[in-house]
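Justification of resources, computational component.

The compute hours requested in this renewal are based largely on the per-chain cost of generating structure records like the one below. Each record pairs the submitted sequence with a full structure-token output. That output is archived, and it is also reused by downstream analysis tasks.
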Amino acid sequence: MVRLHQETPEDWWEVEALYDLSFAPGREALSSYRLREGVAPVAGLCLVARDEYDAVGGAIRCWPVRVGGRPVLLLGPVAVHPTRQGEGLGALLIRESLARARALGWHWVLLVGDAPYYRRFGFARAEGVDFPPPTNPDRVLIAALDPDPGPPPQGAVAPWTG
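The structure output for this chain reads:
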């Protein structure tokens, strides 16, 4: 049994420990982290999955950014504890976070990741999106969150302001 809940300040250390375990050292040096500096995540979209023993099995965070001046959601990081991988926990976190983002009125979501994995959630290569280096442009993916969002955003990805 897994229980999803919105991340709270009490979860922070455990979630950070999961991210440290799941990603390479120096993850904070990535360009996606520079976009997050000084910006609060979208609280209602940051979720933690806990098991029946209250252990953290997975977590996801989402941040506001601008693409060509337009508001876009930046999904990530998302991580699943190595002992819980293969159970669909990552997909559960992503689907729930995207559903909540849609309900909050977000139209587009961007991420840096593996297209074969994220394709099932509606993501495709983000054409015309200039993510800060050293990000591989083939790993910059975008998905529409509503059926008629208008043309996809294009241009430089910049930190959220306002």
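The CA atoms of residues 20 and 131 lie 23 Å apart. The first strand starts at residue 2 and ends at 6.
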